[in-house]
Amino acid sequence: MNIGEVSNACGLPAKTIRYYEDIGLVAPNRSANGYRRFRDTDLHKLSFLGRARSLGFSIDDCRTLMTLYEDQTRASADVKSLAQAHLTSIESKIAELNEMHATLSHLVDACAGDHRPDCPILADLATPTQT
Amino acid sequence: MNIGEVSNACGLPAKTIRYYEDIGLVAPNRSANGYRRFRDTDLHKLSFLGRARSLGFSIDDCRTLMTLYEDQTRASADVKSLAQAHLTSIESKIAELNEMHATLSHLVDACAGDHRPDCPILADLATPTQT
DNA sequence: CTTGACCTTCCCGTGACTGGAGGGTTTATA
DNA sequence: TATAAACCCTCCAGTCACGGGAAGGTCAAG
Question: Are A91 and A69 contained in the same domain?
């Protein structure tokens, strides 16, 4: 399979697939004309990566997950702890966004949003010691 | 005031303050020795920027907000619509993270997390057509 | 034989900084 | 007076995970 076909099959842009080769996540063969030639296992790997990335795992995490996936003697505890750590980081991001949202929606509600210049949003931004 | 003093006062790292000068968000004077010399209005601006950034506004948004802040004839509607748009983008980020969290926490719960290799998390990652 | 759809490499840009090298200035202390 | 610590400066490179685009080679169809 050429890169376009693989791209269609796994949903990753060709650019991304080339990038993944650059950083050593996949290692396709080459045809005589220089084109990348992917095997089924390469496609499988790329799908795995795409799915892991869509769950928010970093490239570094993905590398580890791939290693674990290919290691038949892995302990599921290792996978779980990695996922757990990622979950925790997702939770803290959500918490941070929720806080922003609460503050900002409060301010937006307080703002008349008309032609007049008076604006509680700007007033808040100009008041550093307030939360 | 020198940069260190301003940094303490507004909570932004000196590096960040220099960066903000580079991109034209503040324009402090210079002392004879080449040190930046900040006025109260500069500090005020930087505090404004820090607060806006902490609410997740992009640098570009911050630039607009500063302009609006300094424009006495602004309409609060302009500020509100900017904030509203930002709120919406926060909401979509939260939704995305919530989806990741739901999927991943489900998988984590299903994983034994012991010495055995069987792992629903890896199994899911290896199954592209599943959600 | 040409057109268009592929594929290749290479380099630059993104956002918002952060780290570090290499060096000048000021202030406090011995 | 020497020196050490604590400031300050500029400039360059790196972060993360790609995306855009240039410049050019290859392949199948009409």
Answer: no
Cα separation of A130 and B127, whole Å?
A: 48
Q: A98 in a domain, yes or no? A: yes
In this prediction, residues B41-53 reach a mean pLDDT of: 97
Assigned domain for A79 exists: no
- Those nucleotides of strand D lying less than 7 Å from any protein Cβ are 7-10, 16-20, 26-27
Supply the pTM of this predicted model.
0.90
SS (H, E, C) B53-93: HHCCCCHHHHHHHHHHHHCCCCCHHHHHHHHHHHHHHHHHH
**Sorting pLDDT into bands at 50, 70 and 90, what band is B51?**
very high
Residue of A nearest to B41 (CA): A126
Q: pLDDT tens digits, residue range A59-108? A: 999 999 999 999 999 999 999 999 999 999 999 999 999 999 999 999 99
Chain B touched by A44 (CB under 8 Å) = yes
Q: How many CA atoms lie within 13 A of A43 on its CB side?
A: 16
Percent of chain A with pLDDT strictly greater than 70: 97
Euclidean distance between CA atoms B30 and A21, whole angstroms = 49
> Range of A93's domain?
84-131
Of the partner residues B77, B101, B125, the one whose CB lies closest to the CB of residue A91:
B101
- Number of structural domains found in chain B: 2
